[in-house]
């Protein structure tokens, strides 16, 4: 590794760690370009020399907060053999974490990151190798696919393979469950919901389970 790359990595970690500290101490709303630069001891222009997109910096800092979610979804899905239960467990973890950490979840999974966002994950683990988790390959699309619908289809693949649902019915289930979650998440993220994160999670899972039961029974 040459001196230029070493400096680049060092500067990246300065800004990422400053962003992480701001999220912890002052909340996501205080994470601005100016505040991050000041926290790291540099100016905004220097920050932009290392991060062409502010969303990339938010991704890196937010990903550091994902460890509890990644550990939980990996552990809980390994416990289940029944494909429907696996699907429900995946939704339970996804829903609970997203409503309790909407800004973090949005920065990692939903925010526009420009071209080739998958490369950001490789770069993250280069910078923070100690954060690398033993995530089963079968869960990678669930965690790292940028498209919500694609993640849902993958989660349903076991149900289709078991002959429980046809591809058409699985697609219907995927669309309906995503619409329920998206509506609730959008309201919560934009402060338009009258529910607490816990209530939003409970209501979402109530409807998700009803939709699953209805579609499985009518196949």
UniProtKB/TrEMBL annotation:
The keyword Thylakoid does not apply. One of its GO terms (molecular function) is DNA binding. Residues 9-69 form the HTH tetR-type domain. Pfam families: TetR_N. It comes from the Bacteria. The keyword DNA-binding applies. Keywords: DNA-binding. Residues 32-51 bind DNA. This is TetR/AcrR family transcriptional regulator. It comes from Psychrobacillus vulpis.
């Amino acid at each position: 590794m040459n001196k230029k790359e070493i400096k680049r990595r060092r500067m990246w970690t300065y800004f990422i760690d400053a962003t992480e500290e701001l999220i912890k101490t002052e909340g996501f709303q205080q994470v601005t370009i100016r505040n991050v630069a000041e926290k790291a001891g540099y100016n905004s222009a220097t920050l932009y020399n290392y991060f062409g997109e502010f969303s990339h910096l938010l991704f890196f800092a937010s990903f550091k907060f994902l460890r509890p979610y990644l550990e939980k979804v990996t552990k809980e899905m390994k416990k289940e053999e029944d494909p429907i239960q696996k699907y429900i467990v995946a939704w339970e973890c996804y829903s609970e974490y997203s409503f309790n950490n909407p800004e973090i979840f949005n920065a990692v999974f939903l925010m526009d990151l420009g071209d080739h966002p998958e490369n950001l994950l490789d770069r993250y683990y280069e910078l923070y190798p100690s954060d690398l988790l033993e995530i089963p390959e079968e869960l990678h699309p669930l965690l790292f696919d940028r498209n919500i619908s694609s993640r849902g289809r993958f989660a349903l693949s076991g149900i289709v393979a078991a002959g429980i649902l046809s591809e058409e019915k699985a697609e219907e289930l995927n669309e309906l469950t995503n619409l329920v979650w998206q509506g609730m998440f959008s309201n919560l993220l934009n402060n338009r919901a009258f529910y607490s994160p816990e209530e939003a999670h409970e209501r979402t899972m109530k409807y998700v389970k009803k939709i699953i039961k209805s579609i499985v029974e009518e196949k």
